[in-house]
Each structure stands twice: as structure tokens, then as C-alpha cells.
Specification:
Elements (H helix, E strand, L loop, with lengths): L12 H4 L1 H6 L16 E4 L5 H8 L3 H9 L4 E2 H8 L3 H13 L3 E4 L10 H16 L1
Helix pairs in contact: 4-6, 5-6
Length: 132
């Protein structure tokens, strides 16, 4: 996907701000507080005609997010892939979650607090850093 700032001269700074503003319909902050950088998002399997119609009326970025997230990805990964600011990506993902086309969930913890594997992971990281 082409980055939204491609084709702009450095002197056209005001024009560079127009595209993100239009993508989000003028919204500047995400409405969902549950979308963090590490929140995992996944596209809901397609199956209804209503979902197909909803995709047609979306921005190209919405469709790209749906295609990217057929497998779980973190919000920050989606933003990097799109080449868009994270705050803008959160707004777009929020639209898709609210419309029922995506699921969002917090990542699974590697270990529970106080678990023995906690210390094992930390020791492995420490030993790996020492080898560098």
C-alpha cells in the first residue's frame, strides 16, 4: 500500500494533514480505551451479505486492515504495515470492532505472577544479553 504522504513536497505540510483527517471523518482521538499498542486484533470470518456490503462503503485503509488481520496482529504492527500513525490506526480499528468485523483482545500473558517460568525467562534473557 502506498503511504499517504507520498507525492507531497516538503513545502506542502498543510496538505499532508488533510488525508488522515478525511480517513477518520474528522476524528482525532480513538473512542475505544481498550485498544493499546499490544492489543491483538483479528478479522471476523466473513459469512453474511451484510458484512460484504459494509466493506464496500469503507475507506481503502479499512479494507487493508481487514486483509492484514486475517491472523492476529498487534495494533502497533497494523500501524507499521499501513505506514499510518498509531492513533489514526486505533480509530480505524475501532470502527471495524464497533461494526462487528473485527475482534480485539488483550494478549495472553506468558506466565502468571509468581510462576516459576517467570524467573526462567528472565534468566534466559540475562544469559543471552551477557553473551552479546
Amino acid at each position: 500500500m502506498r503511504h499517504w504522504t507520498e507525492g507531497f513536497d516538503d513545502d506542502d505540510a498543510d496538505e499532508q494533514l488533510v488525508r488522515p483527517y478525511t480517513i477518520t471523518s474528522g476524528r482525532t482521538a480513538p473512542e475505544r480505551a481498550d485498544l493499546t499498542l499490544i492489543t491483538l486484533v483479528t478479522t471476523v470470518p466473513e459469512g453474511t451479505a451484510q458484512a460484504a456490503l459494509a466493506v464496500r462503503g469503507m475507506q481503502p485503509e479499512h479494507r487493508t486492515i481487514l486483509a492484514l488481520c486475517r491472523e492476529s496482529r498487534a495494533v502497533v504492527e497494523v500501524a507499521a504495515e499501513l505506514g499510518l500513525p498509531v492513533s489514526l490506526t486505533k480509530i480505524l480499528i475501532g470502527d471495524l470492532v464497533d461494526s462487528g468485523q473485527m475482534w480485539a483482545r488483550a494478549p495472553w500473558p506468558l506466565a502468571q505472577p509468581g510462576d516459576v517460568s517467570d524467573m526462567t525467562i528472565l534468566e534466559a534473557v540475562r544469559n543471552g544479553l551477557r553473551k552479546l
